[in-house]
Amino acid sequence: MLATVAAGVLLLLAMLVLVRYAFLGIGATEGDVPDASSVQLPPGSSVTASETSCGSGGCWTVFTVRPPDGTTPAELARQIEDEHGDGIPGDLLDPRTIQVSAEVAGADVAVRGSFW
Fold it and tell me: How would you classify the pairing of strands 46-55 and 58-66?
């Protein structure tokens, strides 16, 4: 009896995940962009601005990030590239990988995030 209930619960959870993935696939557009909280910036960094742009092949958001005290923009850009250069893998609720790049922009760092 307990095994049957456990199997039923697992089947229900698997179905819910598949339904979630189906809705993500159906609702996905080239206009989807990650928000700042999903980019996972180093502690002490702060997003001071963001701008979403679109072009052929999709949309992206560029976050202007101020480095923490004691860190240069070049160090922060290198740290972001080292940590996220291969992308940020999705999770169970949103399996899309976030593509991330970073470059120095004056006293700040321009961090570009996109799903495409």
Answer: antiparallel
25-42 residue pLDDT tens: 665 566 688 888 888 899
Tokens encoding 103: 């470059």
Residues 42 and 82 grouped into a single domain: yes
Same domain, 19 and 64: no
Q: Which two tokens mark 71?
A: 């860190």
Partners of residue 51 on adjacent β-strands: 62
User: For residue 28, what pLDDT is reported?
Assistant: 58
**Closest residue by Cα to residue 110 from 76, 71, 69, 87:** 76
3-state secondary structure of 54: strand
